[in-house]
Amino acid sequence: MIQASLVRTARDFRRACQEARQAGTLALVPTMGFLHAGHQSLIREGAKRAKTVAATVFVNPMQFGPAEDLSRYPSDLDGDLRKCAEAGASLVFAPEGPGEMYPAGYQTYIEPGALAGPLDGERRPGHFRGVCTVVAKLFALSRADCALFGEKDYQQLAVIRRMAADLDLGTEVIGRPIVREPDGLALSSRNSYLSAEERSKAVALWNALGAARAAFAAGERSGQQIVGAARAALDGLRIDYCDLRDPVELLPLEQRADPTSRLFLAAFVGKTRLIDNGALGEAG
Ligand code: PAF
Fold first, then answer.
1. Would you say the CB of residue 38 lies under 6 angstroms from ligand 1?
2. How would you classify the pairing of strands 272-279 and 262-269?
3. pLDDT value of residue 254
């Protein structure tokens, strides 16, 4: 197993990435740490596409709202370094603190457009502005050939892809499928907040996707009916949103549903907010 080398400053990260690019191609996997098999699948895919994989571990305060879980976000840098190395990342950038990314006097932000409007953009004001700002900085520091993101955060992936194209950032944005537990729950660092009882309830998100897909497979094409089936399966959870949208512009579905129409879910299991999504025509 390779050893991942850890850098703690933006300057060292820039230099290490420059060296990696001189030796070949570079893939970037941005994370907020507390890595799981989903992150590792991104690193493994990065290792197939580039000579060097750099992972970043930074809980970005700019993307958290005042009432969100910034202060209790889980962390385990030693475990992350081990998991990065195991999956094939030879470089890890874990900034020493927020000041390394946003030094005193920082005042420049990336404001995403319409894709960041609905769903999480509406429920978490400023969230995607914070995501875009940190990801643009990581792209600028690394100048990576490609960067990999999971489809669990499908809207984030769409917003970042748009940003990279609009700003000619020169890093190819690659989306990868959701990695799930055997019972269907999408892997997330936030699953670690769940008690045993909450964990068993959390599978309702997967069941809701299944209910929507079953309705579609049975011939239902009305968005309202399909969403109704998903909502019924979320019974017992506090639903934040349950929406059927087109997969490109993320606009609400006005026509009949088709196999690419995507169900977007956010629900609270106890105090923990979980998200999931999937296309109606995907196997579930
Ligand atoms: O998906 C995440 O973990 C974060 O939003 C990201 C992309 C690392 C930016 O902080």
1. no
2. antiparallel
3. 80
Query: What is the pTM assigned to this prediction?
Result: 0.98
Query: pLDDT digits over 145-194, tens only?
Result: 999 999 999 999 999 999 999 999 999 999 999 999 999 999 999 999 99
- Per-residue pLDDT, 183: 98
Q: Determine whether the shortest distance from the Cβ of 133 to ligand 1 is under 6 A.
A: no
Nearest CA residue ID for atom 8, ligand 1: 31
Domain ranges of the chain: 5-176, 189-279
**With a cut of 70, which residues of the chain have pLDDT below it?**
284
Q: Which CATH architecture has domain 5-176?
A: 3-Layer(aba) Sandwich (3.40)
For residue 39, indicate whether it is catalytic. yes
- Radius of gyration of the chain from its Cα atoms, rounded to whole angstroms: 19
Residue with tokens 């991104």: 42
To test the pocket of ligand 1, the residue of 127, 153, 179 to mutate (highest count of ligand atoms within 8 Å of its CB) is 153
What pLDDT is stored for residue 284 in this prediction? 67
- Paired with 128 in beta bridges are none
- For residues 191 and 29, give the distance between their C-alpha atoms in angstroms, rounded to a whole number: 20
Query: What superfamily in CATH does domain 189-279 come from?
Result: Pantoate-beta-alanine ligase, C-terminal domain (3.30.1300.10)
- Specify the DSSP class assigned to residue 187: P
Cβ atoms of 217 and 279 closer than 8 Å: no
Per-residue pLDDT, 127: 98
